[in-house]
Design brief:
By secondary structure, the chain is mainly beta. It has one domain: Porin (Beta Barrel), CATH 2.40.160. About 5% of the residues lie in helices and about 70% in strands. The strands form two sheets. It has a 14-stranded antiparallel β-barrel with strand order 1-2-3-4-5-6-7-8-9-10-11-14-15-16. It has a two-stranded antiparallel ribbon with strand order 12-13. The longest helix has 16 residues, at about 1-15. The protein is globular, with a radius of gyration of 19 Å.
Length: about 290
């Protein structure tokens, strides 16, 4: 019922927003993807399947602003005798950049993430996120500082992030680094904080046609919120790193296809469980 109601709401918003899609300096897109994850070496987890739909509106007038709404349903299949865990997540984010006299932009992003899950520890959790950001007039530099407040039953995680991005080699490459620091009010997995560095490199192999990306996470994350993906890691296991590859191909001027493969490592010290998970994702995006 939650999924049906959410899809109806998103469809209504799409129909309303399409009235503005053809206005100058504005764009409206609808995307969806499916992700399948296969676990290896886990004592409890077998596989996970999720479906995500996202509506994005952007304005590129003198000031830049936009709205992203994403809905995600998931089923985590666990090994017997453990029961499966169903989840439904909604993420709403608004960004705004003011154009300064020198042509550069100052602004930020505000987001709210809601979790509805069979996992009692994180069920009915609302995660607020806010950031302040700067981007250069030519789009070759980007910096932000963000904060997320994550209040689960077993602890409160205060997440601080700092991000820097640069265009390199005559804009053929984009390099982005993000630092994560999560401070926990109560110890989880014998830890009261976690620190990680995430690096992403995008290569514009064929401009406006094919983009290839590599990314990796070094260090540890615990109860993290990813503001770019709009994803909350609500499992009480320590993420020990990750690596992935993605490709975006523009089939037409308005339609693009997306594929991704990601590997993540986790550790649960309470039950001495070390495992990995490989995610396979495929999706489409249409711009009206």
């Amino acid at each position: 019922m939650k999924i049906k109601s959410a899809v109806i709401l998103l469809t209504s918003l799409l129909v309303s927003a399409m009235a503005f899609a053809n206005e100058p300096h504005q764009s409206l897109s609808l995307s969806g993807h499916v992700t399948y994850g296969s676990y290896s070496g886990s004592q409890q987890r077998d596989s996970i399947l999720s479906e995500t739909i996202k509506l994005s509106y952007m304005s590129f007038d003198k000031n830049n602003y936009g709205l992203d709404i994403s809905l995600k349903s998931s089923v985590l299949n666990r090994k017997q005798p453990l029961s499966d865990i169903d989840g439904f997540n909604a993420d709403i984010a608004y960004f705004l950049f003011y154009k300064l006299n020198d042509g550069n932009y100052l602004g930020g992003r505000i987001a709210v993430h809601h979790i509805s899950s069979d996992d009692n520890n994180s069920d009915n959790t609302l995660i607020p996120y806010v950031s302040a950001a700067y981007k250069s007039s030519d789009g070759s530099k980007y910096f932000d500082a963000g904060y997320a407040h994550i209040d689960y039953d077993d602890t409160i995680a205060k997440q601080y992030t700092a991000t820097g991005g640069f265009a390199l080699f005559n804009r053929k490459l984009w390099s982005q680094t993000r630092f994560y620091y999560n401070d926990l009010s109560k110890m989880v997995q014998s830890k009261n904080n976690a620190f990680a560095v995430e690096e992403k490199i995008a290569y514009y192999a064929i401009p406006k046609k094919l983009t290839l990306s590599l990314y990796a996470l070094f260090g540890e994350r615990l109860y993290a919120y990813d503001p770019d993906l709009g994803i909350a890691y609500n499992v009480a296991d320590i993420q020990k790193g990750s690596a992935g590859f993605s490709a975006v191909y523009n089939i037409t001027e308005r339609l693009e296809a997306y594929a991704d493969i990601t590997y993540e490592r986790f550790k649960n010290s309470d039950i001495n469980d070390k495992y990995g998970v490989t995610y396979y994702t495929g999706g489409l995006k249409y711009t009206f």
